[in-house]
Amino acid sequence: MSKVEMLYREALNRAIDEAMSSDSNVVILGEDVGLYGGSYRVSEGLVAKYGEDRVIDTPIAELSIVGNAVGMAIGGLRPIAEIMTANFALLAFDQIINHMAKYRYMSAGKITLPVVVRFPQGVSRQLAAQHSESYEQMLSAVPGVRVLAVSSVNYAYHALKRAIFSDDPIIFIEHELLYNKKGIVDFDEEIDIFKANIVKEGSDITIVSYLKMVDDVIKAVPEIEQKLNKSCEVIDLQTLNPIDFETIKKSVEKTGRVVIVEEDHYTGGYGSQIASFLAEKLFYTLDAPILRIAGEDTPIPYNRKLELASIPTPESIANRVTQWGESNGL
Amino acid sequence: MDKREVEEIYYLMSLGRKFEYAAKEHYMSGEISGFLHLDIGQEAVSVGAMRAFEHGDVFTTYREHILAIAKGIEPKAVMAELFGKRSGVSQGRGGSMHLFEPALHFYGGDAIVGGHLPNAVGCAYARKFQKAQDGVMALFGDGATNGGAFFESLNIASAWKLPLLFLCENNRYAIGTEITRVAPFLEQSKKAEPYMPTIEVDGNDVIAVYEAVKEARSYIQKGHGPIFVEAFTYRWEGHSMSDAARYRSPEEVDIWKSKDPLKRVRKLLTQQYEMSEDEVDELDKKAQAVVDNAVEFATESEEPGVDELFDNIFVERVENVQG
Amino acid sequence: MAYEIVMPQLSDSMNEGKLISWKVKAGDSVKSGDVIAEVESDKAIMEVQTFKDGIVQELKISEGDTAPVGSVIAVIEDNSTATVEKAEVKKPKTEPKPKEIKTVKESIKKEPEISQDIVEKRRDIKIEIEGMASPRAKALAGQYGIDIVTLQKEGRLPKPTHTQDIKEFIYKRYFTPKALKVVRDYELDYDAFALNHKYRYDEVMRYIEDNDIAMPKPLSTMQKAVIDTVTKAQQKPVYHIYDFIDATLLQEYSSEDKSITVWLLKIFAQAMMDIEQFRSRLLKESIQIYPNASISLAMANGEALYMPVFRDINLKSSDEIAKELAYMKQKLKEGRVSADDLRGSTFGISNLGMTGIERFDAMINADDSGIAATGAIKNGKIAVTLTIDHRLINGWQGAVFMQRLKELAKNEDIFKG
Fold first, then answer.
1. What residues form DSSP beta bridges with B125?
2. Which domains does chain C have, with CATH numbers?
3. What's the CATH class of domain B3-308?
4. pLDDT in tens, B216-227
């Protein structure tokens, strides 16, 4: 019982289900979360179990979904707001940034907002420019909200449950292509959701990544290791704000070489924050220039070939890391 | 209406006006900074609405000093906040625009025009969910009725029959733009008509405001869903202290000053409730003493320490590396 | 003409679908728009329609099955196109066959290859500076007073210089080539030495002896394989049977050319033919029983232990077996044993008789059902220990096998062939 294999979306569903059954103040709201079961089936079956008052179908009005969630939290509930994709979440950025992130601080801690805002992001399959973006870089630059980027099934379960019962507002970022990922949830495990996870240990190159790119990095690693005859350590950041610099530091002190892989755009991408930390704090431990592999600075195109050319893929990751390694003494 | 209640209303309006003038004075002398939005001329709406909605949750905007005081927050805690002091209601982190006191169900101080309306809707949802009695009131100006958040909130509150009282304080100007230049009509309650019942009221008549809000409150408390009250009034001062008021004529301001809501209550007290002018003056004096005391308190209070910079961002504190 | 219904792509993230139920069966006639099945995607249960009229010819998958997006799940004989085709009789045979249509569909599902040009063109800013080195390398060089700029000019350090290059330089500067070899063999760190002069071989050796440092020796591929095999063997549920077989005939018939091992192979092969469980192998859901007796035999060459397989021994004469045995020994010596030589057995023999050992037990090789450990001849008998995988062979069958071995060892007919 303690370890169960399930899908990413099932792990999320289970976390919400357990939270709702243990605390009647937990509610979920969003477009099609109720009767439809959630656009990625995350809230499947919950309306039948907990009723329409707790599994709330909202109009297509993202500003209100997050704004109402903030008000519900002020009123004593623990809302989980689901936004269909990060792209639509832009309509709710006023509520996320001006309200959710700031009420606690502006009120000198008198207002507590236990809100979770969940949404998937990133390039799926040919959804084109208005359905494929990533906005973790903007959101993790907002003091007052925590930002988690969920790659593994185990973390999906534990982090969502912890997030729901956290008294801080949390942005819970999922990825469209991960909902059907299989993985093992260890129910007995106690995890610190503000810690990065070392997915694979290694001694020569540290590869830092998050969300779906972790899976792509893992796919690229055998080729990199074989071509360079070196071993890679792969870190799944998991938490983007706060950043677990400690885990990165330990790894880089060992390897001296860092690659950062992210799906969002190169310019101003989240990886630049990691790169800045490395340059500022770990300069003398670096034995090669930092390599950032990120999405191109282009809106995401519809055509599959162009779409894949606009983001890192296992092949491009393997090629670029190998080239970089070869020209930097590996 | 009970004499004591009218007396209390007059006292609060007088306190409010004196408070605002004191704030203006100390803004000019530099003790208060940032944006300062004064409520002078609109005291009837602020005090009348608050007295009629004593127990419920109130969500309001950045022009909220009098609302906060009328809801029960100590004037000295409000003044200290304007001064940016640790003894302020938001410990100097919010300033004039951000006064909050959840213990008194006062979630004032939102400075994104219309941005607090979805929060009020959410809170009303929670109150309905909890089967609570009092309901929620959201105050906003005519300027907020042109934004998306307003229409989304009308729609959701009415679709879900939430106990929410929309109170529009129509002072005719969205900062410097007269409302009829950017909306098709003066009466913004017309926008709410397809969704819910509406009540229009003279916002310079505090008794009328009080009665209207009381009636609206009992409507939402009965579970009929939301209601919309629009009070017409006028702000004597600029939008904020940095307003040169080029958009309106001195004559127009004078006309509205002649409809001074405070004078109207004084007249009511002396004529209908048989108070002497001296007795009413005593109320003014009492109010002035409270304001003077508040200023003194604010002046003498300490500023927050720089070591408190990171306090109250999160409940669970986890540091990011810097420095 | 056949119209294929494929597993539809119902969402952007769907890779495969599960067939929940069929709404039609073979032989039913269907109209365009009719629902023919219900399919579960990652997002929901959705209906699958036909877009042509016709008769259902075949349902390719069953309810509950999962199929990849784009694979054919049903075939409908399409009336409408049949008439169209008749009208276009003139058309040559270039019309793609159904098979080709399938490959087209598969190629759609394949991810397109992306040109690496884009990747290579991006932001490649090359900077050449004097004394170019990584921060970590510079810090290390500074610590040991190494002048990167000069050494790069002299070609003694690469450009850019990395930590590893500085380390190499330090090693070469402070150790003679012979000493360095020992340092490498023992994986010593230069930090262990004061680095105030160039160390000679004997100095390094003294350090090793004084500090009692063990020499690390990585495992060879063969050692790793052996560890792997015996570890697996250890996990099998085994039991043992101990007995003796008569050695009179074995001794009588053995010669320079035909060792006792040849006859042992022959006896065991016959016993395996008599009791089929010894010719069996355990798979996940079934047991395979082979028609002939193939035996793996433990043979050593230095540290390497092999279990080469002698196939179909029951069909072979003692001469042939002896020849194969000699050939395998030769191969072993030359290190030419191939992976193929190690496959196909169902039972094994480990004979240590030649060493004088009386009795021992052996570990089952790879996927064999058991192994016999045979010792030296004593008092006219050879001790045989059977180690048997209980999942394949029960105790009774094991005992019968042992009984049979004893009979065969005394049966002169065996030694005639």
1. none
2. 2-109 (2.40.50.100), 135-210 (no CATH), 222-416 (3.30.559.10)
3. alpha beta
4. 999 999 999 999
